[in-house]
Amino acid sequence: MVRILFICELPPVPTVGGNMQRTNLISRALGTFGSRELMVMQHPDVYAPDHEQRLLDEHNLVLSVPVTPRAQLKWGKWIGRDHPEGIDRLVRVLEHRSSLYSPDPVVHRALERLLSQRHYDLIVGRYLRATAWSGALNCPPVIVDLDDLDTQVARRHFETAPRLSPVKAVARWQLEQLGEVVPRLLSKTEHSWVSNPEDVPEVPHQHVSVLPNIPFLEKGDPGHEPIPPSLDSRVILSVGGMNQRVIPAFNQFIFNVWPKIKETVPSARYRIAGTGIDDNLKKSWGAVPGVEPIGFVSDLKDEYAGCAFTLVPFNRGGGTKIKVLESLSYGRTCLMYKHSNRGFDNILRNQESVWLANDEAEMGRSCANLLARPQLCARLGENGARHIAANYTYDSFESEVHNTLAATLDRVKRRTSDPADRALICA
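Above: the chain sequence. Below: its structure as tokens.
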């Protein structure tokens, strides 16, 4: 049986955000191809007991080792004791990309020890930077799930940064460096996956394919059934995990766009569900009339059932937005900036299954327009649910994983005549 080591920074359990949901799906697909074991770059103490048991039982967790904060790597352990996480984020911003993408010495040593004790035919890494941190790129053969191509994310960050600003200058600096670092690292891999078809020609690698995002389903779940439209609803719903990258987009919408919507539609309500909505965010956002930050919801079906449509406020960032697909699978159309439909636009068309906006003013007008036209929302949601059922399924996702693994292993086998030479040994 083929033995596979799957390496990720965030574990596949719990599945509370799009990142971890995709990790979970990949892990499951690897597990139906061969004997898959899991290495997570987190301290084992952070796992809740039930989550740790699931990682052991469902994903064959064999190693947990935390990534060293970048500030500690550069200036020693004292920096981590006396300075907040903001210092580490600052270091990640200003550190040269070749250094930022270099192996973490603690994680790399742990991987070397693991590989000296266990044989694997293949390593699969989740994200290029995390795979590079582990040192796995020196232990071929390796497949990397880029998901969001690093250079594309940096390019969009540069393009959307304010002109003549320090942010623009730093973004340009990072983009130029990644233009050298990413091709060099990808040359060490056997294959790359991207979630967005538009990224395929941008990947500097001979072997690259699309592993699309799909609505997340737990193992054995038969799938989402579209929910009948709520024609009387004046609720707009957003779902997502909050972090430093996405909170500014919510702030922008809540404080700049939402008040104008509330003036036009006084009965409108904006509910925000997801992890990471702490007391400070609840206080800040909840102070705005009509905004209801509700936090984590274990079963979102009732939230989708009660809304007229969903909203994605991001106008920058990488990859495709899994919550767009989830919303449509429940029969709720999604209002978003054109950026968030990137990778879906060949199937999810504007004003046929989704509604797209170019800027904040258009976003505000579109919210009011959709709230006033419930039959339009219902039609868009019905079309969207049909497209999801036809094009974004777990079977097709699993098939792409299996086909890639088979082709990669066959290529490696033809290149290496002696099976003993294929044992993974870090260079």
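The longest helix spans residues 394-415.
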